[in-house]
Design goal:
The protein is mainly alpha-helical. The chain is built from eight helices and no strands. The radius of gyration is 19 Å and the shape is globular.
């Protein structure tokens, strides 16, 4: 996701007086800027950084939805709307089958060890931002169980 597209979409939401959309996009832009400053690349924000921050924001909003009390329908609706908006900008993540195929193709020598810890260490560095960590963990566990 390009940072400039996020900024243009926020301006469009402001012009359309869509407060919910503006607030959701604004929070993502703020988070991206903060991470860029922390990593020392404030003037040169690349797409990988934006994608990483979007996934992190998506995960935190999902947590808010999961921990919100059921009787607070107003908050739940607000969180869900924010989740849906941020999800529009999130990069497409790999499915479990795609993760398994990638693991068997690129990490055959590490998979042969059968050591789940070593496998996860090698794989997570490569697949961060491309697939959900839980999906990767499940795929590695299934492959390790099949190899025993």
């Amino acid at each position: 996701m390009e940072f400039t597209k996020l900024q243009k979409d926020m301006v469009a939401a402001m012009k359309a007086r869509d407060k919910v959309r503006k607030d959701a996009i604004s929070s993502v832009i703020s988070a991206v800027k903060k991470v860029a400053i922390d990593e020392g690349c404030r003037d040169n924000i690349d797409d990988a950084l934006v994608d990483r921050v979007i996934l992190k924001e998506l995960k935190s909003v999902k947590e808010q939805i999961d921990t919100c009390p059921a009787e607070r329908a107003d908050l739940l609706e607000q969180y869900q709307a924010r989740y849906d908006i941020i999800n529009e900008y999130a990069p497409k993540l790999m499915s479990k089958e795609e993760v398994k195929a990638c693991l068997q193709e690129k990490f055959a020598e590490v998979l042969a060890t059968g050591n789940k810890g070593q496998i996860m260490k090698a794989v997570m560095a490569e697949m961060k931002g491309k697939a959900d960590g839980k999906v990767i963990n499940q795929a590695v566990a299934e492959i390790c169980a099949a190899n025993k």
